[in-house]
Every structure is written in C-alpha cells, then in structure tokens.
UniProtKB/TrEMBL annotation:
Ranges in coiled-coil conformation: none
Swiss-Prot/TrEMBL keywords: Hydrolase
Annotated ranges, domain Nudix hydrolase: 47-181
Claim: Electron transport is one of the keywords in the record: no
Name of the featured protein: NUDIX domain-containing protein
Top-rank taxon: Bacteria
Organism: Streptomyces ardesiacus
Record has Hydrolase as a keyword: yes
Listed SUPFAM superfamilies: Nudix
Pfam hit, one: NUDIX
Length: 211
C-alpha cells in the first residue's frame, strides 16, 4: 500500500430479499439475503441502529469528564464518556452531542470539534458513532435534567488523560467510545494538534444530517 491512500469506500452488494424478524423500541434485527462474489446467496443477520454521538469533554487541567453506568448486556458498571442515540432521523449530531453533555453532566462547552467517526460493530450492527471533542467547559445554567432507569445510578467524575490511557492499555476500561476517544485524543495531540481536527459540522456520510 506504499504511496496509496488507505480509505474506507462505499459499496453495496446485491440483496435478493430482506426481512425484519424483530423490532424493538430503538433498534431492530434485519435478515438480508446477500449475493456473494461467486454468485451464491447467503443470509446475514444484523442489528439496525439509528446511530449515536459521544462527547470527550476535556477541561483546562487535562482531565476528561467520565460517567460510570450499569450496562446490562455485559453485566458490568462501565466508565464511559457522555453519549446517546440519534433519536430523530436526520438530527444534527452536534446538537445531539450538546444535549447529551447537558443531560448527563449538566455541562456546556464553547469549542466543539469532530474527534473521530467509527462503526462500533460492523460485522453485526450498522451503528455509526461520531465522537466529538468538547473544550472550554463550564457548568450549564438552569435545572438539571431528570434522569431515570440506569442513568439514575450514574457516577460522574473527571480523570486525567494519562490515567485513562493507562486503564485502557491495562484492560481495565472497555467502553468503545471511551477507548477510541481517549486514544484518538492522544494521537491528535501528538500529531497536528487539536485545533487541526475537523470542524464540528463536518459531513458524516454514515448519518447524513441538516446543518
């Protein structure tokens, strides 16, 4: 690959049939009959997901705002960065990220940039996540958002970046957005710098949105 650009590209193989055997509150499961390169047809099951946003909120002391929340599928309390679903089709991801930071941490930020975009589990789910970097943090005004269910038990704290990196590499922190976000932050700092990151309104082909 020397001298070439490594870049994911869109492609869609022929689908001979499609069914949705399960529909949940926010996601569903789809079964597609997909034509393989040799002409054979195989079934592929995957979760259909609306997409998500996550926020790596970095304060002036080099600490990241993290929350600890119970996640039933893995039976663990995980340290995570604020995140949430794109509940409305076509929703502007920046607006969704600002809402999640306010609701989960009662914090607002002055400077927003795109840290990275990822597919969480492309072999079995079409979830796309945009992870934002938020800086210039301050306490939000107004009443706190009333949380419920798992969120009612959340813990909130700020942790130095280097401590999070240590936890990731030691296998002690497992949340996808936290891992990807923290390591991307360090890579950006060591590369062209945080100010060189994409603007908050950068296009997102995986989940197109209105500006």
């Amino acid at each position: 690959m020397t001298g070439s650009t490594i870049k994911d590209t869109p492609e869609e193989w022929e689908i001979r049939g499609s069914q949705t055997p399960f529909r949940g509150k926010k996601t569903s499961v789809r079964t597609d009959d997909v034509v393989m390169p040799d002409g054979s047809v195989v079934s592929r099951d995957y979760q259909v997901h609306p997409g998500s946003v996550a926020v790596l909120a970095l304060d002036g002391e080099g600490r990241v705002l993290v929350i600890r929340q119970y996640r039933h599928p893995v039976r663990q309390k995980l340290w995570e960065i604020p995140a949430g679903l794109l509940d409305v089709p076509g929703e502007n991801p920046l607006h969704a990220a600002q809402r999640e930071l306010y609701e989960e941490a009662h914090v607002k930020a002055e400077d927003w940039r795109v840290l990275t975009d990822v597919y969480t589990t492309p072999g079995g789910c079409d979830e796309a996540v945009r992870i934002f970097l938020a800086r210039g943090l301050s306490e939000a005004v107004g009443e706190r958002f009333e949380v419920e269910d798992e969120e009612a038990d959340m813990e909130l704290t700020r942790v130095p970046v280097e401590e999070l990196v240590r936890g990731v590499l030691a296998g002690e922190l497992h949340n996808n957005c936290l891992v990807v976000g923290v390591l991307s932050l360090v890579a950006a700092e060591r590369g062209d710098g945080l100010d060189a990151l994409r603007p908050a309104g950068a296009p997102w082909p995986a989940r197109p949105f209105e500006a």
